[in-house]
Structure formats: C-alpha cells, structure tokens
C-alpha cells in the first residue's frame, strides 16, 4: 500500500448535509461484514441519528466524525465505539468511500484521531478488530504504531462463513 504523507484531512462533526453520504455508507452491503450492522438504515433514522448526536463521547458513548479532504469533500467516516471511560479505551472504526480508497485518507484520518485521543480525550489505548485477510487495514494500522495482538477465531461472519480477526492495539503515549 502506498502511503501518501502529503494528504491532509479534517475531522469534523456530522452535519445534516452528510445524510446522503451516511446513507450510502450505512447501506453498502459490502461493508456489513466489517461491522455489526446487517440491516439497511432509512434516511429518516439517519437524519434522527445526526440530529440527536451530541458529539460528546461521554454522553453518546461513541464519537463519529466525518473525514473531509482538502477540497471539502466527505471521503469517509471515522469513529470510536465501545468507549470505556474506566479503562480509558475505545475501539476504532473507519470507512473510506470506495472512490477515495488507497489515496492516504485512512492513514491521515487515523493519525489525526490518535492526536485527538491523546490531547483531548486522554485515552490510554485504542484498538481495532481487523479481518486477518484485510492486508490493507493491517499495514495502515501497523504503520501508525498499532501492535499485532491476539487472533480471535471465527470472530466475523461474512458471506456464509466465519473468519478469524486480529486485535490491533495502540497504547497512546502522553505527549
């Protein structure tokens, strides 16, 4: 995977104008194997989700941010879920829209999120669950300092079969 170090992104709160992007991402069946979603979302449900989100991880128990490129186009979504304030950790999730993949946006967005978790949220660690066959995500996370952890046997159900997943962790050093 080519790492583009000159890629700049902005992470921002969801806006009502993001409804079409979220609708496209949440209803892309090819992405359902990497998350816990297995049903389509209506525009109404997503509209209410955007309207009701406080964008405060302590209130929502998650943080979902839009990834925007230099041209101010939404290129994807990045989030922290499974927030555990007692143990100061959360699970990383990221989706880059198909036409923007392999251009360095994921690397840039995760890097920004790491800075945010270090300097604002003061988390001790973030982790990701990655399909063992997803070499692109594995290399992206490894290049950002995530360590390879345990293999979770038959953790993900996709296309009628169970697949192994790996836990990748990043311990965040205080800067």
Automatic annotation (TrEMBL):
Keywords: Transferase. The keyword Transferase applies. GO terms for molecular function: acyltransferase activity, transferring groups other than amino-acyl groups. SUPFAM superfamilies: Acyl-CoA N-acyltransferases (Nat) (SSF55729). The keyword Oxidoreductase does not apply. Residues 9-173 form the N-acetyltransferase domain. Transmembrane segments: none annotated. This is Acetyltransferase.
